[in-house]
């Protein structure tokens, strides 16, 4: 299992707007292609204006194929402009759990 951890720093004060549009439109499009959502978070204490979402994949090839399908979806292409200008910095990590780590039972 591999975990993709996507972290976005948003423009000041835009977390409510970002979360609303993702909840109303974006998350269902993502889930239909990416599959297993481990969690979707926003900062309350610490670094402000931060969104973190974590997706689980069986392999890096699985991730690549799923992301390719997402990017090709016309619904996703129409959705992206609604969040693109709210994001100031984006970071992406791929993490692999240690043998003793609890894991998502997805896939």
UniProtKB/TrEMBL annotation:
Q: Which residues form the NIPSNAP domain?
A: 3-102
Pfam families, alphabetically? NIPSNAP
InterPro entries found in the cross-reference section: Dimeric_a/b-barrel (IPR011008), NIPSNAP (IPR012577), NipSnap_domain (IPR051557)
Q: Which family, according to the similarity comment?
A: Belongs to the NipSnap family.
* Official protein name in the record: NIPSNAP family protein
Origin species, per record, is: Rhizobium ruizarguesonis
